[in-house]
Amino acid sequence: MKFKAIVVDIDGTITCENRELHLGAVKKIRSLKVPVVLATGNILCYARTTSKLIGLDGAVIAENGGAITVRYDLNGTFEGSLEECEKAFSFLSGHFKLTKLDPFYRKTEIALRRDFDLKKAINLLETQNFDVEMVDTKYAIHIKSTRINKGVGLEKLAEMMGLEAADFVAIGDSANDVELFEAAGFGIAVANGDEKIKEAANYVTDASFGEGAVEAIEFLESNGWI
């Protein structure tokens, strides 16, 4: 078994607990001979900046799969799903005081501060016919299209790179990485990951956060898979 690329989440996976980039994980990623793609629920400019700081080529999946780009010198590709998310936001705003995060930069979804009853919000949303879902990434709550996820983003980006999604190893920590693991050829969850991602993983590290990402890559190297 040999993989041609790695796709890795950012926050909670290659960061420290305080969200600073884990320098050990950065150093390990820089040593790799295979392409590394960053996949995040955050905005495209954040993903591109992180890719640049690490020293990667700029291939990123942002906004939980709604925004992708393969290089720094190319514009991002965005899914047209924001209007439906806005309708759901308007409905939920009648029941909760909601605060948008990065509204000027988000093009395909809505991210909210994690200060309201998510379970109640999901139950209310299910009474409506919006084609959206709510996902908690532990850093924000996202209202996103049911047709968009990191796995769909990986399928599209892999094709742009001349690869298959199954050629990738995915590394992540959160429920929004589940579809990414399902699309990739192999999935590794870091120890601080939630139960959903651990259940979807082929391997779970002993170490957490950036140390877990280092362990994940060393595991792949020790098996000769990258």
Share of helical residues: 25-40%
Q: Strand fraction band?
A: 15-25%
Work out the count of structural domains: 2
At CATH's second level, what is the architecture of the largest domain?
3-Layer(aba) Sandwich
The CATH topology assignment of the largest domain is: Rossmann fold
Shape: globular
**Whole-Å distance between the termini?**
9 Å
Count every helix, treating DSSP H or I runs of 4 or more residues as helices: 8
Order of helices and strands: EHEHEEEHEEHEEHEHEHEH
What class do helices, strands and sheet pairing give? alpha/beta
Strand order across the largest sheet: 5-4-3-2-1-10-11-12
**Nearest-angstrom radius of gyration?**
17 Å
Give a short account of the largest sheet: 8 strands, mixed
Low-confidence blocks of residues: none
What is the H level of CATH, i.e. the homologous superfamily of the largest domain? Answer: HAD superfamily/HAD-like
CATH class descriptor name of the largest domain: Alpha Beta
Mean pLDDT over the full residue set: 96
Let me know the number of strands.
12
What does this structure look like?
It catalyses: 2-phosphoglycolate + H2O = glycolate + phosphate. Substrate binds at residue 150. Its cofactor is Mg(2+). Helix 1 packs parallel to helix 8. 34% of the residues lie in helices and 19% in strands. Strands 5-4-3-2-1-10-11-12 form an eight-stranded mixed sheet, sandwiched between helices. A four-stranded antiparallel sheet has the order 6-7-9-8. It is globular, with a radius of gyration of 17 Å. It has 226 residues and is an alpha/beta fold. The protein has two domains: 5-78 and 148-223, Rossmann fold; 82-145, Hypothetical Protein Ta0175, Chain: A, domain 2 (Alpha-Beta Complex).
